[in-house]
Design brief:
It contains nine helices and eight strands. The chain is an alpha/beta fold. It has an eight-stranded mixed sheet with strand order 1-2-4-3-5-6-7-8, with helices on both faces. The N and C termini lie far apart (about 45 Å).
Length: about 300
């Protein structure tokens, strides 16, 4: 794995990337897409390295993107009183980070090859993936938030974050990615952003994974409601019994605060859940069909 910084993603601020190349003898195929992975709010690339390394070991090129301003360092600075805690306002910057990485790969400035791309994300990283895929939020977010906030959503804290977006200009949604092959979401959310079937416009397969112990993005409200309108026959929704919101997050530093939380937050047997998440991800990725070459122009379509 390499850990370069992508120049030009933000003014005077390098964009940290971790690149996991397919291992020799892993059965990698040049026709496979590459995977762009985004951590959640306050997360970093290292927390998703277990999944990136495992996918690369089985032949999938992976890039893990860390978002300056809404990563672990930003949360630590907020806890020390040096800045405000990052929140929904960071979504626009995160989307710009993703667009910078996609452009760098397309222009050959990023040493990653693949036919198409899979966007993967945890929590807010999943929301970023959906926006980067070209699915705009439905109009009327403020009205939906006014109704949702009539009762404090103690059983769904993600709605507080979604309603923060109503106080900021929504980020510009890029046009749909032409080479997007699939979307892989862990503990994502967006019931107020994409209500009433608006995610049904997604034209590629989507794997959405939740956890039965997720107290941040409860699966019935935040995953099932988004998934039901999905039309692609290869899309799947899975809820892991005993999984929590933080099950996809691997904690290697014993000083990190998540280690001190109970099973209600970290789930039951996190390493076992992560092995299951890997198996589910591989099964989904292996079902992605190879890209078909564009048909040749008919003779009457040639121009001089």
């Amino acid at each position: 794995a390499a850990d370069p910084g992508l120049a030009g993603a933000r003014p005077r601020e390098p964009l940290p990337l971790t690149i996991w190349s397919p291992a020799a003898g892993s059965g990698a195929s040049g026709r496979r897409p590459w995977v762009l992975m985004m951590p959640g709010l306050g997360g970093n690339a290292q927390q998703l390295s277990w999944l990136a390394a495992a996918l690369a070991g089985r032949g999938w090129p992976v890039v893990v993107l860390q978002h300056p301003g809404s990563d672990t360092q930003a949360v630590r600075a907020a806890l020390e009183g040096h800045r405000r805690p990052p929140g929904a306002e960071s979504l626009g910057r995160r989307l710009a980070d993703v667009e910078a990485v996609l452009s760098a790969q397309a222009e050959g400035r990023l040493p990653v090859e693949g036919q198409g791309v899979v966007l993967a994300g945890h929590s807010l990283g999943g929301v970023t993936a959906l926006l980067a895929a070209g699915v705009p939020p439905a109009a009327g977010l403020q009205a939906r938030c006014n109704e949702a906030m009539q009762r404090l959503p103690l059983n769904n804290p993600s709605r507080l974050l979604q309603c923060e977006l109503a106080e900021h200009p929504l980020p510009r949604t890029p046009p749909p990615l032409k080479d997007l092959r699939a979307v892989l979401l862990f503990n994502s959310f967006g019931s107020l952003l994409w209500p009433d079937g608006s995610l049904g416009e997604l034209a590629v397969p989507m794997l959405m994974v939740g956890g039965s112990l997720d107290l941040v993005t409860p699966p019935v409200d935040e995953q099932l409601a988004l998934f039901l309108p999905t039309r692609h026959p290869r899309s799947r929704l899975l809820v892991v019994d005993g999984g929590s919101h933080f099950s996809p997050v691997h904690i290697g530093d014993h000083k990190e605060v998540l280690l001190h939380l109970g099973k209600e937050f970290v789930g039951v047997d996190p390493l076992r859940v992560q092995r299951l998440l890997l198996a589910l991800s591989l099964e989904f990725l292996n079902q992605i069909e190879p890209m078909r070459p564009a048909p040749p122009l008919r003779s009457e379509e040639h121009t001089s």
